[in-house]
Each structure stands twice: as structure tokens, then as C-alpha cells.
Specification:
alpha/beta; Rossmann fold; six-stranded mixed beta sheet; 6 helices; binds flavin mononucleotide; Flavoprotein-like_sf; FMN reductase; FMN; FMN_Rdtase-like_dom; oxidoreductase activity
Length: 208
């Protein structure tokens, strides 16, 4: 079983990567294969509603082949679950995350439906709740089971890598990974435990 993780941050090795990498490492410790793709700073177009992806019912690709969308689309076909990560920009997911996910789901929805998905949002201070819900809205109308954690999948940090110091955020990522591997194993009839692994709660308050 394989989970595809995609970071929509333009900042390679930044906080979105840090959070997703915590999910990735934990999935691997649970015996799940992973691939983490960072979109980086290259542009990703938005959907132009041309309908070209649906003209040939067997194609399942966006007409624009000049960015990473179709590469991810191909990877999605062999993935069993997904984690999409985005930095919060002005209280919502960044434009790259929205553009990519909308084109993926519209052009190749069959590669996503009935596969578990989670989103991860990273911010300095505020707006992550709205960004989180906005991301889930896209998956919720595509028959994708949403995997949850012990809290919303949010990590806090501003400068590159600061999110690693958000100890509760990192625990939320590990719990998410355990829940996702558990769900995948249940779906595929490979679960060896009734419930997923769970760490003792390790809260981190803003004022300390
Ligand atoms: C254009 C822009 C808008 C941002 N808007 C917000 C915001 O609304 N709320 C917030 O808490 N942080 C905001 N931030 C800060 C980033 O979310 C934060 O630095 C995050 O850690 C970046 O993740 P990355 O390292 O993966 O790129 C913004 C950053 C940029 C560049």
C-alpha cells in the first residue's frame, strides 16, 4: 500500500514539508510505502473549464501538460491514499494547492474516489481552520473518505522548519499517519489490531 503526499508550498523544506514529513516517517514505521512530492516554486495553472480532459473518456489528463498536474495524476493512479499539504495564505489554502487539486479531481476523479485522504495546513498564527475546511470540501464531493487525527491537522511556524518545534502539531501528524495506515489496512483486510496506535496526549499551548 502506498500513500502519496503532496506539498503545495513554494518553499522546499519549509513548514508544510516538515509536517508532511512527520506523517511520511510515521506511515513508513507502520509499514506503508510513501512518496512525498514538493511542488516548489514553479507555476501550476488553474482549471479553465474547457472540458478537454473529458472529451476522450480514457485519457484522464488535463489538456495543459506544461506543469506538474499530469505527473501527479499518473502517480495518483497507483496510490492507495493521499495527504495534501498547504501553507495558509490570507486565511485560505494557497492558490497552488487549489489549482492543482481542482484540476486533478476534475480530469482524473476516478483515480481518487474511494481512496482515503487527509489535508494538512501550516500557518504562522491564524486562518488554518478555514483553509482546512476548504481543502476538505474538495475531497468531500469526490467520494473520498477523510482521515482525521486527534485534532485538526494543523502545524504552526513561520520560518522554514519552525513547525518541528510545534510538538502538539507534530503529534497530530503522527496520529494522522497511524489512523491512515490503520484505515488502509482495514480496507485492504490486512489489519492486525482492532484500533490504531495512539500516543499519550502531549498538548502544547500558545502561552507557556
Ligand atoms: C502570501 C502569504 C500569506 C500568508 N498568510 C498567512 C495567514 O493568513 N495566516 C498565517 O497564520 N500565516 C500566513 N502566512 C505565513 C505562512 O503560512 C507560514 O510562514 C507557513 O509556515 C509557510 O509554510 P511553508 O514554510 O511550507 O511555505 C502567509 C505567508 C505568505 C507568504
Amino acid at each position: 500500500m502506498k500513500v502519496l503526499l503532496v506539498s503545495a508550498s513554494p518553499r522546499r523544506g519549509g513548514n508544510t514539508f516538515t509536517a508532511l514529513n512527520e506523517v511520511k516517517k510515521t506511515l513508513e514505521s507502520d509499514g506503508i510505502d510513501t512518496e512525498l512530492v514538493e511542488l516548489g516554486a514553479k507555476p501550476v495553472r488553474g482549471c479553465i473549464a474547457c472540458g478537454g480532459c473529458r472529451r476522450d473518456p480514457d485519457k484522464h489528463r488535463c489538456v495543459f501538460d506544461d506543469d506538474i498536474c499530469n505527473t501527479i495524476s499518473e502517480k495518483a493512479e497507483t496510490a492507495d491514499a493521499f495527504v495534501f499539504g498547504t501553507p495558509v495564505y490570507y486565511g485560505v489554502p494557497n492558490a497552488t494547492a487549489m489549482a492543482l487539486i481542482q484540476r486533478l479531481l476534475y480530469s482524473n476523479g476516478g483515480a481518487f474516489q474511494y481512496k482515503p485522504v487527509a489535508n494538512v495546513c501550516v500557518c504562522r498564527r491564524g486562518g488554518a481552520d478555514v483553509a482546512y475546511q476548504t481543502m476538505n470540501m474538495m475531497f468531500e464531493m469526490c467520494n473520498m473518505p477523510i482521515v482525521t487525527s486527534q485534532y485538526w491537522n494543523i502545524a504552526y511556524g513561520r520560518e522554514k522548519g519552525e513547525a518541528a518545534s510545534d510538538t502538539e502539531g507534530m503529534q497530530t501528524m503522527r496520529t494522522l499517519a497511524h489512523n491512515m495506515s490503520w484505515m488502509l489496512k482495514k480496507i485492504h483486510g490486512l489489519a492486525t489490531t482492532d484500533l490504531p496506535e495512539k500516543e499519550p496526549w502531549s498538548p502544547m499551548n500558545f502561552i507557556r
